[in-house]
Design a protein that fits this description.
By secondary structure, this protein is an all-alpha fold. 89% of the residues lie in helices and 0% in strands. It contains four helices and no strands. It has helices at 4-64, 67-101, 105-144, 152-158. Helix 2 packs across helix 4 (152-158). It is elongated, with a radius of gyration of 25 Å.
Amino acid sequence: MITPAHSQIILGMLSTAAHLATQSRDVATSRHQLHESTARLAHERGLFEARAEVMKGLIDALIDKRVSAVRSGFSEVLQLYAEQATRYLDQQGAVSREMLRQDDPLARSEYRWRLNEVDTELRRIRSDARQIYRQMTEIVFLLDGSNLILDGRCVNALAI
């Protein structure tokens, strides 16, 4: 025979189980966010190192008046940005396809959140690339009076 005390114990156990399930989901979400933040920091560190290396090379090239070396360095930097943008475009497509396959509204919202994160990173990469392209074009123009010309893949990936 089930007494009110048994009922309270059972309800308490169910409440504890629901609480543990919620905490487990929160931990998984936090781990996912930590992984994404770590990846983003690694990407930004790589870009910072690339920028620093290019700036060092730029100073050397400017001192030696080697315009072709400057052009080459600029193209390499923009190619790095184009590769990053292409990766994010690929991720954007994959996340969009996966989001459309989901029936669960919670899963869709998580994919929508991830898609927004990818879109934000892609806009940031493109914005940085456009700013750098403008500065590089000014420098090349000051050095030899011509414009910096990019290949079609860079132009398309970076939306320049």
